[in-house]
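QA checklist item 7 of 12: single-chain prediction sanity check.
[x] sequence parsed
[x] length recorded as 234
[x] structure emitted
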Amino acid sequence: MIWKDSVSVKLLSQSRQSLTCEIKLPGSSLFIYTAIYASNESAERTDLWIELLNLCQSFALSTVPWMIGGDLNQIIHYDEHSLASVNSFSKRMVELKDCLLQMGLFDMRFQGPLFTWTNRQPDDPIAKKLDRLLINNLVLNLFPNCTSFFLPALFSDHSPCLIDLSYKIPSSGTRPFKFFNYLTLHPDFHSVVSEAWSCAGSIVSNLSGLDRYYQRQHQNCLNKNNWRSRSGSS
C-alpha cells in the first residue's frame, strides 16, 4: 500500500488474502478499508469469507464506516457471468452473497463496465464481475457522494477501480435528452432529419450544437412574427 504523508494509515489485520487498515483523511472521520485478493481455490475463498466475518465481529466493523475492495474471484449473481449457460445460482454465489448480507455490505455506486475480468481469448471469450468495491451504510453517511469507477483493463485481465469520495452528483434539475421512438415511423422522418442536419452545416458538430442552433432559429422566427404583428397594427 502507498499513501501520502497527510493520510494516516494503521494496519489492523493481515492475511494471505486480505489486508485491513484504519484510514484517516485530513478533515474527515476515520474509516476502515479492507483490500482483497481472493484465491483461485473455492475452499480458500470460503476461508476468506469466514475471516471477514470474524474481522467484522472482532473490530465491530458494523459500527464504523467500512469498505472492502479488490478481486473477490467470485460472482454473486448469474447475470455477472457472460455465458448464457450460467443461468442459476450456485452454492458459491449464495455463500458469498450471504456473507455480504451478514456484514451489511453492498456495492458502492459505480460507473464503467459490469464485467471486470475477461479471459482474453477471442475464440472462446468469457467475462465476469470478479472485482467489487463494497461499503456499509455508514460510509454513505461519511461520504454521501462516493462513487467508484471501473476503468478499462490495460496490462491486467482485471479492470482497475478508482474511488472518488467526493464525486459531484449531477443536479436533479438536469433534464435528460428524450426521444420518442414512434417518430421514426413517420414516412418523412429521415428526409426531415437529413434536411435539418444539412441546413445546420458546419455550425454544429453534435446534437447539442444542433439543438442550440434550432433554438436560435426558433427565437428569430418568433421575433420576426412579433415585429410583423406590431407593424401591421401601427
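[x] summary fact logged: The radius of gyration is 26 Å.
[ ] second reviewer sign-off
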